Every structure is written in structure tokens, then in C-alpha cells.
């Protein structure tokens, strides 16, 4: 009889431009599991945000509403995959403890486990270069219109979090990786896959 494994939620964590989407894609491909990216949902909300902003006086209010909606859609898609018994990689900033709490509740209801892979770059110059290169190449049609495109925009975003991104994850297994190291890339992804496999249980 084949051993049954509990599904696993691999929750990516990190600020924009830290390499989490690259790692998430590599890990999902290596594990052959669904990748659910919050940006895929948020990218589709531009027409709604434009309509809401035109009808109201607060662009920020519309953006916050649609960002929250993007997370709700993401959690629902994850729940569907978990009910099928599939491990999922969730690519989002995981910037607030409330987001982790939602994942933990989802995992409990689905009989799944959660691990966190946090991308935290040590080389600020490389991080900045990546962020601004991506910003220069971005267009509304390609998605990403809602992401910071400059270092100054990122700094404003991080300041707006008010320190809430550095929350205690409790007993949730977490691996912190630096994608700006010279040895990054395949080695980081391999280390992440090994971490995930060592935390999978059956």
C-alpha cells in the first residue's frame, strides 16, 4: 500500500524584489505541485481599481480593498488544491501575521502542514538593481502595475507596514534564504526543496 502524505502549504515570504517568485517557481516545478501567485490575481484587478477610483475619492481605499480581495481569492484557490490532497506553493509577501493565521486555519481544516520560505537579501545594491530593472521592464499589460518600480516606492511600502512584517511565526518551520549571494540560484532552490521534504510528513 502506498504511503499517504499530508498536503503541505509552502508559504513564500518577503518584500518585492527579494527573489521569492523565482524560488517559488523553481520549487513548484521541482515538487510538481501547483503554484498560486497572489500577483496573478492582483494583476487582473486593474480595470476594477480604475472604476472604483473614478467613482470614489480614494485610490488608496480601492487598492487596499482589491489587495484584500486578492488574498481571499488566493486562499480559496489554495483550499481547493488542498482538498484534492495536493501540496501548494503560495507566492505572496506574507507581510502580516493575519495572513499566516489564515493559512494556519486553512491548513487545519484541510489536514495540511505549513512551512515558510522567507527571502531576505543581504546585498541591498543587488536587491535594488533587481527591483528597478523589473520596474523599468514592467507595463500594465504584462501585470505588475501594482508593484513598486523604484527603490523609493519600496521604501515607502516597507515603512507603511510599520514593522508588522517581522512577526513571530511560532512553531511553523521556517527557512530564511538569501537570493543575492553569489552562490544563489539553483543552490538556493535545492536547499529549499530539501527543507520542504524534510518537513513533509505522512
From TrEMBL:
It comes from Elaeis guineensis var. tenera. SUPFAM superfamilies: P-loop containing nucleoside triphosphate hydrolases. This is Uncharacterized protein LOC105034943. It comes from the Eukaryota. InterPro entries: P-loop_NTPase.
Amino acid at each position: 500500500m502506498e504511503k499517504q502524505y499530508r498536503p503541505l502549504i509552502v508559504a513564500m515570504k518577503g518584500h518585492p524584489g527579494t527573489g521569492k517568485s523565482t524560488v517559488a517557481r523553481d520549487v513548484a516545478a521541482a515538487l510538481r505541485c501547483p503554484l498560486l501567485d497572489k500577483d496573478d490575481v492582483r494583476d487582473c484587478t486593474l480595470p476594477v481599481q480604475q472604476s472604483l477610483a473614478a467613482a470614489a475619492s480614494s485610490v488608496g481605499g480601492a487598492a487596499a480593498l482589491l489587495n484584500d480581495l486578492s488574498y481571499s481569492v488566493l486562499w480559496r484557490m489554495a483550499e481547493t488544491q488542498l482538498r484534492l490532497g495536493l501540496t501548494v506553493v503560495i507566492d505572496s509577501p506574507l507581510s502580516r501575521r493575519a495572513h499566516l493565521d489564515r493559512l494556519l486555519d486553512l491548513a487545519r481544516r484541510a489536514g495540511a502542514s505549513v512551512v515558510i520560505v522567507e527571502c531576505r537579501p543581504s546585498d541591498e545594491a543587488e536587491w535594488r538593481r533587481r527591483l528597478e530593472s523589473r520596474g523599468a521592464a514592467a507595463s500594465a499589460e504584462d501585470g505588475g502595475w501594482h508593484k513598486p518600480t523604484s527603490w523609493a516606492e519600496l521604501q515607502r511600502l516597507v515603512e507603511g507596514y510599520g514593522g508588522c512584517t517581522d512577526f513571530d511565526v511560532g512553531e511553523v518551520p521556517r527557512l530564511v534564504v538569501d537570493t543575492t549571494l553569489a552562490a544563489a540560484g539553483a543552490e538556493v532552490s535545492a536547499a529549499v526543496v530539501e527543507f520542504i521534504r524534510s518537513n513533509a510528513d505522512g
